[in-house]
Records
---
Amino acid sequence: LGLALYAGSLCVASSAAFLYRDYCIIGAGPSGLQAAYFLQRAGRDYIVFERSHAPGSFFALYPRHRKLISINKRYTGKSNSEFNLRHDWNSLLSHDHRLLFRRYSRDFFPDADAMVHYLEDFASLLKLRIQYNTAIVHVTLERDGQAWNGHYFLLIDQDRQNYKCSSLLVATGTWVPNVVNFPGSEYVEGYETVSINPEDFAGQTVLILGRGNSAFETAENILGVTNFIHMVSRSRVRLSWATHYVGDLRAINNGLLDTYQLKSLDGLLEGDLEDLAIIKDRKGKLHITLRFYLENRNTSAGIDSITLPQDELDNFATRAPYDRVIRCLGWKFDFSIYNRSLRMMPGKGNKKKYPQIKPNYESRGTRGLFVLGTASHSVDFRKSAGGFIHGFRYTTRAVHRLLENRHHGVPWPSTVYPITQLTNSIIKRVNEASGLYQMFSVLADIILLRENATAFEYLEEYPVGVLAELEMQTGRKAPNGLFVVIMEYGRNFSGADKDVFYYNRAVGEAQHAWQSNFLHPVIYYYKHLPTEREMRLRPPDWPLPRPDAVHHIVEDFLTDWTAPNAHILPLRRFLENCLSTDLRNFFAESCFLFTFTRQKLPPFCQQGYVRMQGLLGSEGLRRHAVEAGLLEDYILTDFSGDRPPDSHEGSQDQLLRDHAVPVRPLQHLVNAKDE
């Protein structure tokens, strides 16, 4: 009995040692705070673990030179808050208008300290549940058939405290520096520790390893005080304005390109860093050589006994010795804390710095483990903005909606409209939606058609990579076909070697809309929801499978797709062709004539005129329609001088009097009266 009681007490103690939450979020950076906000608004049980004493600890150190490259456009000429988010790359999504980043900085490229302040306020003002000074050092699984996903996630912090949760959201970002090991790499200084005081580099010759924004940021800081700067990397420089990828080199940091191309001593080189070697001479100078020169040699024997490339090729590019070599190779995801049972595997090729995840941001190895923020960028790497705040604030919201449906039976938010509002709904979204605009080719609006195309259901910003799973992921049904509204660049417009400033680069005619180069809306029509197989076999670089019909809205210099002839009319005709219906709006008089001349009324007349809905006519409105050519010019034979012609009562009486109506065929009247 004593042994049984002792064993029971151990089980109770073991159970009590785990602090349980439905949702655990690792990391209180921007994506962790964004996820916490949505969970809190939904009333869910969650906790955020942050290893530092404050949120956004990454921005307390990086970028080292404190200038963010995310734009803070405070003025757009518009008051629409959703539209303005298209040009606000720093704000997180919330209901609190105080938490817009433009209130924290007036700079177009803000200081990183403003971001730290912003994230602190976001966490405190919204009262997010964050446990600071808690570093999660190990994550493993506990199998349990009663758990949401068939297992629980067990977390251990630096103090050996245990936590248990049903769903794990990883928002740690990529913070482990990329390091390349080669002979002499011990002489290399890291971006994370190198001095940011330009005077420390005065009169020195510097070699920078890397060619991303951190490398050019470092070069920009010391450009005016060094003898010269060389930059070497495996790949050629990629300019963001050519690739349309915000993670490539931004103009704010590219001063070195000027000094290189204008022959002011600085230069760029291409080469595999793993093939390099660094030799330090007696004066402390660093010489660049190639690894194969050091094979079977003792590097400690001295530089005089080692063959250098310039000994064989006297104009070798890096023959001049350097005072300093700086590593600026970016960061990668920290896989070290995850037990093998979670099967958190790195991606392949240029995505190896990210964990492998599905298009719905769930780990490929473990159900219920979602990766958010910068670490989830493998889904749209080098394509869209998913690795940056102005992109992952929307993908984080999408993940939250998927979780709400999976675990709590809350379907994806949607709105049902009559079919007559289809054109207007699409035009409204493509002109103001920020999620579609920033996460182009990744997030899309889904329009689910009701039976007989009398109405439609509108879902916003759904991940197109899991379109085949839409019914399961959203709790919405799609038995009658669907439209997918997405934003795209031209197929052959973006690329490191592309000239994006060539003459006639823009398309202005609606009939050539499919050749649009700049970001523009594209509408795909499917009679049936695409299958998993169709998604796998879609054409290369297509975000979606081949549709039954597709329509490009021609690109617009002002990104304002409201031109009646260039934008709206072609879209409406495309929708009408897909649905075999008439989506025009009509005056009541036209609907009245249709009831006598057609077997089937247009939807606008069915849902408006027949149900006694619509605008009340007046003489002023009638005259305006006549002048616009939308109505026949009826000649009124009698007006009471005591009553103004545009009064409602007068116009009603006058329409009932005998008018001098020109005798014309009814069909001609019908054709003349559609709006």
---
Amino acid sequence: EAYQSHAKLLEETHNQLLQSTLDAGSYNKLHGFTHLANGFAIHTTPSQAKKLKESPRVKMVQRDRGAKLMTTYTPQFLKLPQTIWANDKGRQKINNNAGEGITIGFVDSGINPFHPSFENNNDNLLINNNNNTSITTSVTCSSGFCGACEVGPRFPASSCNGKIVSARFFAAGALAQSRLNDSVDFLSPFDAAVKDGVDILTLSVEPDEPAEDTVTFLDVFEIFMLLARRAGVFVVQASGNKGPGSSTVVSFSPWSVGVSACSTDRSYPATLFLGNGQKIAGVGLSGPTFGKGILKHKLVLAKDAVYINSSLPRTPPYTEECQFAEALDPMVVAGSVVICNFSAGFYNGTSTLTSILNTAKVLGFMGFILVANPIYGDFIAEPIPFPVPGIMITKTADAKIISQYYDDQTKRTEQGSVIRYGGRASIGEGREAFFDRYKTTVSRFSSRGPDIIDSHRNPADVLKPDFVAPGQQIWAAWSPLSASDPIFEGNNFAMMSGTSMAVPHIAGIAALIKQHNPSWSPPMIASAISTTATKYDHSKVMILSEGYDLGSSYPSTPFDIGEGEYVAFLCSLPKINQGEVEAASGGSCNHPLEHPADLNLPSVTITYLVGSQVVRRNVINVGGKQETYLCAVLPPNGVTVDVSPTWFTIAPEGSQDLEINLNVTQAAKDFSFGEIVLTGSLDHIVRIPLSVLPVSMS
């Protein structure tokens, strides 16, 4: 009741401020913030926003930059302890108590409550409403969580159950800017959370560029995450999909956990069989051509099947990309394996696989091959379920083999018209999973560090991303409406890639840790994951990172895979306006850190090391036994690193200060990497990544 009364008072002050400051009719109030922060969101003009910014009663005003979506088998791949799962006659099933009492909030593009993944699996429903009258909201309270089930189109009150315990939607901003499409955007949670009492908050929708008018850490989005962590919520966010370039991460702050994406050791190889016995590897997720890939079928180049006297445009989408069924002669292509070219339309994004599939179905292709074009080079493709047999040949070298075989087997007139199609081909089964322990790599699209402090991309003394988790070729629950990608329309599951696919893996691990250690703070949970994470694949080889070129890779660094008092950290940033920090955070800059790198993170990042520098860390023994640790260092190139003390004994719940002295021995133009390894007498191993740019020796 006290909170409700205070919230109402804040809402009244918001309205009074708006009415006294802005012109009547010049704004539309969208949201009021009364829990983590005291503020509001409005839709208005730049001139009215300027009036608010100049008001002495307002601490901060920022323009809404919008947000983007950072778009099974993983428990075994992650090597989670089998005690989490109960074994039932050789089959794994979830232990009913795993993660019980922990609530995870997801901020995403929506949820389909009718999907089988969200069926309730226990009899104790948190919501049971038998009222037949019109309902807009049902309230859910359990284990310290108290949320609501907001209903709307395709989201009845019965949607909330023992798995979906609360659902809310926030559409006012999009409605104000007329950005919604009624056919695919529903004003309900179908399209969530600190106030409700979640333990873990996962963000798959977020700004994908730094703010232009402030340091990255003081953006409103970052400040809200700081306030959430201050309230005891473990915040996990996608690090972004702008890799593999450096400083492309969009998870900036040390108080949130940024997750990058990697592949698993599972793949779905597809194979094209030519009539001369050659086998060519490709990408696809379809069944084989008739005859299970053994029986060969006529091979036809789409360009050779175009109507000669057609009045249709003679552009690549019509002549070689298989985009329009009316452009091709059905007498030629029916029952054939048709070669479609990756040409200008695919390169500029106007041509689609969906159109190829439509053409194939209309004209009765036996199958299709989308081949790389030497003009545009190799292309990148992900396995996609095709309703007709299909394969993508992504490398120009392989495409050349197909082209040579086709030319050798095809008889033409002097004018170039085909009089005999002698080439034969088949497509093999592409839906069977293959497992390769050497396969794990940081995904090409996954954003990389170093972290940045501003829109000019100056580096920050914070390691980002924090972790890497499976995020490539993940089978995900999918809405059959498939508004964002028609190729998956009608499917309940889709194979997706993106750092948003990686985020739930870390959230799930955090939930298990939180359940086992309910008193642990979010930084303790993050540190526990970071200091025990591995940088090696299942073959004990360092995880590789994909580069720009198809098939290229290099040994991963902490900027690919990742790794106290946050106001003191903010106040210690170079050239920072401490008044702005105090206004945004509500804290005081009376006791800033000596250096931003002194923030007690489970990693050390120094973006500008001149001569020598001492940084400090404090470790806590969260185990139940006394343990002795030895300190070892793998120093970054051009830097010596000394840790003091070199060994220590720490009691249960005890703490130990570590002093880390770094000295430049050779200047460099780029970051180098190392790590501090603490090896315990009870076989515990703690790793602290080091990322240093040694600028000069003095």
---
Amino acid sequence: NYLLGVGRADCTGPVAEIPLMGYANPDQVGGGLLMRLYSRAFIVADLDDSRRVVFVSADIGMVSQRLRLEVLKKLKSKYGELYRQDNVILSGTHTHSGPGGYFQYTLFWITSKGLIRPSLNAIVNGIVKSIDIAHQNMKRGRLFINKGIVENSQINRSPFSYLENPASERSRYSSNTDKEMVMLKMVEGNGQELGLISWFAVHPVSMNNTNHLVNSDNMGYASYLFEQEKNKGMLPGEGSFVAAFASSNLGDVSPNTKGPFCVNTGDSCDNPQSTCPVGGATMCMAMGPGSDMFDSTRIIGRNIFLKAKELYERASQEVTGPLSSAHQWVNMSDVSVELNATHTVKTCKPALGYSFAAGTIDGVGAFNFTQGSVEGDPFWDEIRDQLLGEPSNETKACHKPKPILFSTGEMTRPHPWHPDIVDVQIAAIGSLAIIAVPGEFTTMSGRRLREAVKREFDSHGTPRMDVVIAGLCNVYTHYITTYEEYQVQRYEAASTIYGPHTLSAYIQLYRGLARAIATNTVQDLPRGPEPPVFNIGNLTLVPALTADRVPTNKTFGDVLQEVRQQYRAREVAEVTFVGANPRSSAENATEHNFLTVERYASTSDRWHVVQNDASWDTRFYWTKGLFGRSNVTIEWHIPPGTERGVYRIRYFGHYRKKLSSNRAVSIPFEGTSSAFEITTP
């Protein structure tokens, strides 16, 4: 028995003109909304409330160090020493369709056009609010754990790297991905259902890098389906049941189950370099199971949801026992690892290899770099040396066989390009140990880490622990491959920034945390060096917010392209309005809804909201025109089974109006389509 609390809060942020975080594609900026992003918080406390553990899964690309430090600062000012470095885990789902700009290290700062305050604030406030809600609703309850296999939802996107691992190790596993989902169910003492956390390893990249609509991808869609089912009669984003689908060791795992094909010729490009005969690596893309990226997101998300639902309904193994948590900051650029009694190796200053620029079959790079590069290229080396400085001989030697493209650990202008100080953290809830990792562990890296931590618990008198990896926590440090995978330098290996012994270093560190928890000596762990906070100005490459304007003889919210009078289920109702920049709304309120779909009830002569902008079936597109003008198009993809009747679509925006040279206000407005009829369900 524990005290349990769950909470969910919006963390969407600006849905227009902000680069989306994940594919590092500068052209992929927000242009609307498919689904809202949420932070989901879970608090577990002892009955005597002496110890607490907080797990947060947020619909964002990853948790950045800046984000974590700001969240903890806010929690400290609200709750004192209740929520701290050691007992709060912040994990990102790893959607690649959320706004970026919430990073302080220069590399990420460049791909997301600076530190974008509205984006950072929306996530900080959303996470804190979700924890507030959970904190205010603590109830006595019980926890249950269940595990099961998810089929047809993932492939290994670097199978040739995986094959580098020893055959004796590979033979112990039936697959080159981890198919197991671990699910934690939370129930109140009186039987009232509270929520669940599922951990499953797959990249949320069913939506590809041509997408411009902010959304939470396949994992978010699984959350959406589960919450819609449990919060009956509620709109998306409403209701007390909270379902988090959290990331795990997804480093080399793709949801694009058809595998890699050459976009131009249709041939398979499942080769060690992921390259095509014509057009090279930029043509090699993996395809999901659906007819388009929306359909693939739906199929994969539904698979994951259905397995979670089955595990949830059958969960009977209760989680009991004490709570504990351990955290350290570590300088990952300088860890000595004892491989055995005679052999000690070291981690390196961070650096990215050539294949980092190649991208993956889920999102290719901008230039024709190929994966599996163990040689540099004089042309790119020369450009790099001129612009950014040549890597030192020490760094080159440390990272071998990686040819270094960016020696980020030696790049400090205007601020360091990559973190040195990294969080390692484990929280134990009875027999469940959650390993919070600062990046993307590959399948085999994750297996080695889980096994090492489990062995550590076993040998110190805490047998039968369930060990789960929570991905993309606390600070982002790219990928962690095994030493063997590192040797062939595909994308994941090139992005293993602390060198070939990164995984060994993490295993040593997490074993230390597990030992401290098992032997009850957490208080003796050194805190480690504190991470820096950089004073980053407000300079961004995001266009300045200017006054919104309308075409002649029009006003904001006027309909430019009307709906049809009649639709059937499976058709798309579409309406275009005179719009305004959605960022003018985001500055006002995170809870702002851009649209509703409403149904007319003749009995009461009232319109009732049946869908909002968090719904999977609605799409909100913003198109920027010239001279401050813009259009908004709203689509409703009418689902099968929709009740017959009369409907309308409404748009809610804010336009920005200049009062003087340095003062502007946002003024709310709305638009409404004509009524239309749905004839067949």
---
Amino acid sequence: MTTVRQRRVGKGTEAAEDQPSEETNVKPDGKIPSDHTGGKLWNILSITVGGIVAISLGLLTSVYVATLHENDLWFSNIKEVEREISFRTECGLYYSYYKQMIQAASIQQGLHGLVYDNKTESVRTINILERMNVYQEVFLSILYRILPIQQYLEPVYFYIYTLFGLQAVYVIALYVTSWLLSGTWLSGVLAACWYITNRVDTTRVEFTIPLRENWALPFFAVQIAAITYLLRTHLQPAQERLTLLVIFIATFLFSLTWQFNQFMMLIQALALFILDCLDMLPTAKVTWLYIIQISGLLLVCVLQFFNSMILGSLLISFNTSVLIARTIQKNLKKGGLLNRLGKLILHALLVLCLTLLINKCIKKILNLESDEHIFKFLKAKFGFGATRDFDANLYLCEEAFGLLPLNTFSRLSATLLFYIYLFVLLLLAVAAVIVAFRNLSGSNQVQLMEKMEECTITLKPDAAYSLVHTVLFGCLALSTMRMKYLWTSHMCVFASFGLCSTEVWKLLLKCVHLYTSQRAQVLKYSVPIITLVYISYKFWPGIMDELSELREFYDPDTVELMNWIKSSTPSTAVFAGSMQLLAGVKLCTGRTLTNHPHYEDKNLRERTKQIYQIYARRSAEAVHGILRSFGTDYVILEDSICYERRHRRGCRLRDLLDVANGHIMDGVGENEPDLKPSLYPRFCEEIKKNLPSYTTHFTRVFQNKTFHVYKLAKHK
């Protein structure tokens, strides 16, 4: 098991608003007074200073996470094999393709090795570029090979520094989004500070560097910033076209770097759909965003050799359905309140039915089953019946796919982020409900609108999008802890925007009959500054202590195992074991695997379930037959899995296998009535007794405190 141990030491300024003022002071002779020139210079100065601050905070964040990574592992001092072991589970698998491309004799040979790969899954040749999102590793490896940096920078540092550099892009994008929403870069400073001080809940890049989300989320943040700008009014055609281009590029890069992109963009498309139905966004811009999502995903599909999972995504079906339904129903935004509500309900039902129909047809035509485990997991998670499906239960029992822990909110509250977020969310949600009601009521409700205007303001399109975005992604985070990073980063943006927004303070002060423009301006700047002072005072010492704490990587058992494999087994040997460990075996030794952690393939999932019979109650002969059917030469057994205590009864890997096989589980507790005792003992325990029925098929060739390696007999 990988661990770390204690190291042994031998006044705010505003950006220019997009909307023109209602009145422009012009002299009778047509000349603009000198105040206009002074205002322009002030805006240029404000944008320049704000931009410099944004870049500085982004770079500081990048250096911060890089320093934490170095301090935690002593990465610069440990051996190459230890560095590679530190890329745990699927991280190691992804990094192995970067290493493979670097070590290839040529770029062409490296690409050929990925397109015709026979070492990731034994007795199968697969296309890595089709199955996995590893174009970023390909691009980086090519860049490393052609740049004159080999003698100055090791490949691993080029890789991790790129990821840490993307954190700078991420923070800058969050900063700009908040700035665009509020109109002041002070809001961006607050968003960046919250992102850093809530690092535990906003990112995990420092210890899961190659994870796909660490590549993708910076591009997603850039896309959201560009959408925020697009939704402003009075954009010039050239500005709008340039913004759409930025959105397309960011969407494409986000889709290219993460296999779960389609689900995140489906939530985004749902937000656009809701706001468009409520007449809170311009329909033409929403249509462009739908088209960009589809085209970006289809371009990725082409690059991934027409990956069927992309073609069968719900996003493509949903966006296509919305565009079709809108063509069929042309008068959605006409009529009174009840008339429009009826039309919208029919519209939503039509879109839902079309989405399911189109998606079903695509999957039927393509015989697509790659993502069925996700829907089985969702069905079981939300209580639509218990399941014995091994894959679904494997997800259900992982903490990362469980509900968001309550202690998350206590950590977010310590920085005041969660309290302010709820405050802003409540205010804007009330405003959104009122605005939506006014929009749906139609033009005949003028008096009602005027009455409501006394206590509220119109919600701008960019703020409305940000509100629905944070609500939907908040629901996702609450239901699935692993997805919290999509929510918490935007939470920083949303809370800082609300605290620095004139509109939000105007809304609040009007509702309590205390509104004056001077009060709104004072609160807009004073409250964020006080919040920043509080955060700095409370968390700066802790950050300094964190940066001064030195540890080092320590995992001697895994290091010993990898060194033994490299020195004592043929380079063509095939290894079986847990998905997580085998990813490290491929990275550190280059040996062929039977299975791996990239789970988005039905054949691989079935293969993994078969390989995992080494931890079930099966006979030696049956296990040997299964392993040899995949060409296995060696099998690695882990005590941490065989005698697992991390999960509760019913969620241990051996329990999932027992239930899937129809056997009763170990230990005290209830079992379902139709489960029966197995005729055989647990394989991973019984093999260590060296009984003749086991030694006939398996010979132990390596052992330490954590791992046991057995060589399989090759019977004719």
